[in-house]
Amino acid sequence: MEEERLKNKNFIEAWKKALNGIWYAIRTQRNLKIQLGIAGIVIICAIYFKVTMLEAMFLSFAIMLVIIVEVMNTAIEETVNLCTDKFHPLAKIAKDVAAGAVVLASLNAVIIAVFIMLGKII
Length: 122
Known about the structure:
By secondary structure, the protein is an all-alpha fold.
């Protein structure tokens, strides 16, 4: 019975649960709020500098990648927290590696934005 309670009844319920997960991450994760703010600034700059459709696609992909990885980082952190409330070296590694993935995605986004925006400024 427990397994059935976790299953989605239909497509709409699956989407509702997914949106609840995204909303949870936005409400509770300070870094995600910061990243969304930076994404807003990048979008405003992209409009101001009149980026091409291809450049907009690259920026959009980079922004979404950071958000996706941050949401996955939240899922990993919460899962580790569920498993233990004590320090464990493997729990630390899981959290650190997930956070490292966010750093790599963010670095990728910065590099893409710099290439595109620098080209517009110069």
